[in-house]
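sorry for the late reply, my laptop died twice this morning and i had to redo everyting from scratch. anyway the thing you sent over, i finally got around to it. pasting the sequence first so we're on the same page, its 333 residues, then the predicted structure underneath. double check i copied it right bc i was rushing
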Amino acid sequence: MLGAVAGYLADARFGDPRRGHPVAVFGSAAARLEKALWRDRRDTGAVHTAVCVGTVAAGAALADHALRRSTAGRAALVAAATWTVLGGTSLTREARIVARSLRAGDLDAARERLPHLCGRDPRGLDEGQLARAVVESVAENTADAVVNALTWGAVAGAPGLLAFRAVNTLDAMVGHRSARYRRFGWASARLDDVAGWPGARLTALLTVAAAPEPRRAWRVWRRDGSSHPSPNAGQAESAFAGALGVRLGGTLRYGDGPRPETGVPPAEGWGRTEHRPILGGELRPVTVDDIERACLLSRRVGTLALAVTVGTRVLAGGLRRHTDPSYGHKELP
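ok and here's the structure:
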C-alpha cells in the first residue's frame, strides 16, 4: 500500500501530465478499434469492451506477476498505476479555471472550458447553470476519478486500478444513449455501473463524514440518491448537495460524443436533453463560490478514501497473518 500512498501524493503534487497521458493513449486506441468493430448491435459492443478492458487488465496482471518477488518493484508499479488513474488534482484545477472565468464575468471563457469537465452543451448556460454543472461534475468525478480507483486498487492492486480506469474511460466514450451508442455502448455502460457501485456508496459515506453539516448531507443522500437515473452518480451528487447546502439536478443538454479527457474529440452537435430529478430541492441554488467549496470537499473525501482503502488493506493483511501461520513465509526447497 506504500505504492498507493506514493501515487496519491504524486497526483496531488503534479496532477495529470499535459501530454502523452496513458488514458488519452488508451482512448485513441479504443477509438481506432471502435471504427473497425462498430455495428449497431450489443454483441459487437461487448466484444469491443472485452478487448479494450481485457488487454489492459491482462497487461497489468502480467507486469504484477513478473514483479511478484520484488516488493519494491510491485510498490513502484502500484504507484505508477495510481498516479495514472487518479484525476483528483486535474479535476479541481479545471473546476477552478471555470470559477475564475465566472468571477471575472467572462461567460464565454467559462463555456469554452466546461467541456474539459463534462460532456454538456455549454451554449446558453448562465453563470448559475455553469456553476451547477461544475459542482455536479466535481461530485461525480470525485467518485469515478478518485474513490472508485482507490477502491479497486485496494481490492486488486495495479490490475484493479488500471482495469477500472479503462472501464470508466470506455463509458465516457461510448456509454451514451445516443443513436450511435445506444446498443454498441450498452456493455460498457453496464460494466461501468457494476464497477462503480462500491466506490459511489463509499464516496457518499465519506462526503457525509467530511461535510460541515453531516446530518443534512446524510438526509439528502438517503432521500435523493436513488432518484438519479444513474445508479452511481446520484449517490455522490446528492451527498455533495447536502454537504454544500445547494440544489443540484434539473434539465441538462449533452453532446453525442466522448468527453475531451479521453483524448478523442466529441462528435459535432449536441443531441440529448435529460430532465433529471432535483437533489436537495429545499436548498439554495449553486453560486460561483460553491465551486471552491466543492473542490475542498473533494480533496477531503479523496484523503479519507486513501486512509480507508489503505487501512482496510493493512487490516486484511494482518487478519490473514493471524489466521494463516504460513502467510508470508517462504517454502523450504
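Residues 2-323 form one domain.
thats about all i looked at so far, will dig more tmrw
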